[in-house]
Specification:
Number of helices: 8
Number of strands: 2
Strand order of the largest sheet: 1-2
Shape: globular
Radius of gyration: 17 Å
Largest sheet: 2 strands, antiparallel
Strand content: under 5%
Length: 183
């Protein structure tokens, strides 16, 4: 019953699918799904950031700065596994993006943003950094987003966040993972 509950929850998150009389299977990675996910995620994440900037206070600013600092000090990969993404970095990355949105003041919007973020993380984790072709300074991207948000420059902050998310999608679409996966 524990496994069935776990599979049901994974199915709710669109990570596995249930087929009557056959059981469960992992949802395949596909270009159309990733592009759709990106469009939805951009809308939700930029809306949350826009609302957070409108309602910004010192507590929100502090959480964004702290999350950025922790992300910048966390190694992307584990020693000896330079092609992997460490769990610590993944957690710090999620905390940074959550901190950006957290000031929005809407528990429902925060709940809605979590699903697309988690789904995008599945793509990122499966497309290991060693298979990606584009060189990026991701920490610089995060820093620029945080600086614009703290400066209350809504247009720049949301534009930078959208570019950051879309750049990740572009990188994933050109990764060895997506090139070896049927459309």
């Amino acid at each position: 019953s524990v496994v069935r509950e776990a599979l049901t929850r994974l199915s709710e998150q669109r990570l596995v699918r249930s087929e009557p009389q056959l059981g469960f299977s992992v949802v395949p990675l596909d270009r159309d799904g990733l592009e759709d996910l990106t469009r939805v995620r951009v809308e939700i994440e930029t809306l949350a950031l826009r609302w957070a900037i409108e309602r910004a206070d010192l507590s929100w600013e502090t959480s964004v700065v702290a999350a950025l600092y922790q992300l910048g000090r966390t190694p992307v990969s584990e020693p000896g596994d330079e092609n992997g993404i460490s769990d610590a970095w993944s957690d710090a990355h999620a905390a940074f993006h959550t901190a950006l949105a957290a000031g929005c003041g809407s528990p429902l919007l925060m709940e809605l943003r979590r699903g697309p973020y988690d789904s995008a993380e599945i793509y990122r984790r499966w497309a290991r950094p060693g298979t990606l072709r584009e060189e990026r300074d991701v920490h610089k991207e995060h820093t620029e987003i945080a600086n614009a948000a703290i400066a209350r420059n809504t247009g720049l902050a949301t534009s930078l966040l959208e570019a950051h998310i879309r750049r990740t999608t572009k990188t994933l679409l050109t990764s060895d993972l997506m090139n070896s996966t049927p459309d």
